[in-house]
Amino acid sequence: MGLEEAIESGKFIVTAEICPPKGTDISVFLSEAALLQAIVDAVNVTDCPRAMVRMSPLVLSSKLIKMNIDTIMHLTCRDRNRIAIQSDLLAAHALGIRNILAMSGDFTTMGDHPYAKPVFDLDSVQMLQVINKMNRGFDLMDNPLEGATSLCAGAVVNPGARPLGFTRIKFQKKIAAGARFIQTQAVYDTDLFNEFMDEFKSVNIPVIAGIIPLRSAKSAGFMIENIPGVKIPQTTVNRMESASEPITEGLKIAAETIERIRENCQGVHIMPIGKHEHTKRLLEMCSLL
Amino acid sequence: MIVTRSKSIEEILDQLDPIADLKICVVGCSLCAGKLKTGGEPEVKNMISQLQDNRMDVIDGVVLKHACSIESWESLIKEQPVISDAEVLLVMSCGIGVSLLGRICDKIVIPALDTVSLGAALNDEILLEMCSMCGQCTVGFFSGLCPKSGCPKSQLNGPCGGSNDGECEVRERKCIWTRIYEVMEAKNMLPVLNKILAPTEYNRGL
Ligand code: SF4
Ligand code: SF4
Questions:
Q1: Helices of type H across B41-94
Q2: CA distance from start to end of chain A
Q3: 3 state DSSP class of A206
Q4: In sequence order, what are the residues at sequence separation of 6 or more whose Cβ sits closer than 8 angstroms to the Cβ of residue B172?
Q5: Where are the domains of chain A?
Q6: pLDDT digits 0-9 by tens, A84-119
Q7: What fold characterizes domain A3-285?
Q8: pLDDT at A108
Q9: Is A191 helix (H, G, I), strand (E, B) or coil?
């Protein structure tokens, strides 16, 4: 089932993320996609995450479409001005890509080209507005398009960010700007997540919670240090430190997290550190397969 | 205030390399660069001795009152006659002063500073990224605070996902949106923040 059908049907949505290669060898990307094909509703393809140069998500999303895998293409505001964003959206539509995750993007100085010029011509709210305008057959300046897009736009929210004041406002803006689904930053602190979701009970678009199974105590430390906005409770770090089989412990923690939040959200989004070799097992552990 | 930083001596020598046998005058600026200690009297003196250590032919150094606002090249020479004997001006001012000198004189003009930000001086503190001259000022929606310059990602509709516990994910300072929220709350202006702002109209004033 593709993402839009999954949203329509009201089922608990499962998505997973693959990162394009740094280089021209796409064999690992394709084998990862094949692993996910039967077990998720759609596969996210990231857009140079952490501002590292990688292959364009446009071409890899289109490869997935050809394999009959529905895809959610990430599109950041970091590297493109409003002309390039609209150009890529038209290209995405032509390639059969139907879901776009609109995001600001990690800042340039985080990545492997710290001296790159940060673009940020639009912000994510404005990008959502552009997508909706193009769906109605117009570009940002109201010029008519020869053929409208039919794109389902999604947005990102960090439910762990505090204080909630502005997160609340921006979330509402994203919905008003036409977001049809939300994918969240990785959730470890389920209390923070549930508190956030309680605030937004009335929101009627699906919120798909991000899950990153930890692989080791070290990976927890790395995430706290390097992934903006991720909060991992000390108890979780302790469990990883004392685990004899850290990979299994990480999956257990992820499964428990899903159990604790699933009543409060409409899906989960699996983003492993590295490959998807354990994603199927994780989904089985929480009866999502 | 235009905020400048000193270039490394290596980068300066690299620029001077093709013209290493020409006579140099070091030109400072007493305004922003003077205040920031990147192009005032002591910095000009220090630059002269560094260049001499590297066997450059420095004839003198001068500090202009304001390198960004000059009556004419002739009036400048009248005030600082030594400049006219130089073949190269190594300029310790912001990019505006460098550009202006490059335009009005027949000397070779080389910058000694990097121009990094439009800032503000608050007592002894220098606040960076106060305005990025976007050309369409929208700070009226934020009671004067500027997210286009204060936020490295130029977000106009609220903080990015990396803003956490009030801190910016990019710079070591408060997220500008935390400040905006606090200011708007204190001034009973919070509802204004619900408005979705359209993309900036760049270039409209040029
Ligand atoms: S909105 Fe534009 S003009 Fe106004 S302070 Fe910010 S950068 Fe400067
Ligand atoms: S943390 Fe705040 S100031 Fe920093 S980039 Fe994000 S929105 Fe901008």
A1: 41-53, 73-79
A2: 13
A3: coil
A4: none
A5: 3-285
A6: 999 999 999 999 999 999 999 999 999 999 999 999
A7: TIM Barrel (3.20.20)
A8: 97
A9: helix
Residue A40's SS3 state is coil
> Which domains does chain B possess?
2-116 (3.40.50), 134-194 (no CATH)
- Cβ within 8 Å, pair B158-A165: no
Burial class (CB in 10 A: 0-12, 13-18, 19+), B108: middle
Separation between Cα atoms, residue A174 and residue A125, nearest integer Å: 5
Q: How far is CA A271 from CA A16, A210, B182, in A?
A: 6, 7, 35
Pull the structure tokens for residue A149.
């897009």
For ligand 2, atom 4, the nearest C-alpha belongs to: B168
| A165 vs B143: CA distance, rounded Å | 17
State both tokens at B71: 């009556």
Residues 6 or more apart in contact with residue B65 via CB below 8 angstroms? B29, B30, B31
Statement: residue A228 has pLDDT above 80: no
Q: Determine contact, residues A7/A181, Cβ cutoff 8 Å.
A: yes
Check CB contact under 8 Å for B156 and A126. Answer: yes
Strand partners, B91: B27, B111
Q: What's at A5, amino acid-wise?
A: E
Instruction: Please say whether the beta carbons of B76 and B83 come within 8 A.
Output: yes
- Ligand 1 pocket mutation pick from B128, B136, B148 by most atoms within 8 angstroms of CB: B148
Which atom in ligand 1 lies closest to the alpha carbon of residue B130? 5
pLDDT-derived band at B126 (thresholds 50, 70, 90) equals: very high
